[in-house]
Write a structure and sequence with these properties.
This protein is an alpha+beta fold. It has two domains: about 100 residues, Winged helix-like DNA-binding domain superfamily/Winged helix DNA-binding domain (Arc Repressor Mutant, subunit A, Orthogonal Bundle); about 70 residues, Ferric-uptake regulator, C-terminal dimerisarion domain (Dna Ligase, domain 1, 2-Layer Sandwich), CATH 3.30.1490. It contains six helices and six strands; from the N terminus they run H-H-E-H-H-E-E-E-E-H-E-H. The strands form two sheets. It has a three-stranded antiparallel β-sheet with strand order 1-3-2. Helix 3 crosses helix 4. The protein is globular and about 50 Å long. The protein starts with 14 loop residues before the first helix and ends in a 12-residue tail after the last helix.
Amino acid sequence: MATRSSPKEPVTVPAEIQTRLEAAGLRRTLATRAVLGLFLANPQGTLSHAQALASLQTRGLDINRVTLYRLLERLAACGVLQRQTDDDARTWRFRLADLGDDGAAPRFECDACHRQFRLTGASEPARAVADELMRTLAGMGHRGLRLDMAVHGTCADCADPSDGTAMEPSR
């Protein structure tokens, strides 16, 4: 059960997210609004379950870790969040799903800070590659449901050690 002594600031849920929540039968509980607030505050960022739990607890929300895990999974299932595997940390990371028309845009993920950058200029070529991969799968008798394209590396902020804020990739 989630409790909080005093709400910090109300979370404004964009209409498209609200529509997805309603279509999935999810209510806008305090926990749901708080979790959405984490991701809406940093749309390029990703959080592991443990990081989300720590952030919520820091903000005064007492939420059970299993409840949070189930909520993250439900938000991913209805298309509000996207879940990616962090192979180095052997965990899942969640991020706000792409809500615009360009959902097929590939992305770049920094392995040091886990920020993600959409590569919208590559959307059309990426869509052509995705279509070809899906056709190849279909020709083999498989049914592809979705394709996530990501390039992993180190972002400019983390790669530039001159400002003293460069980060090593987390393991």
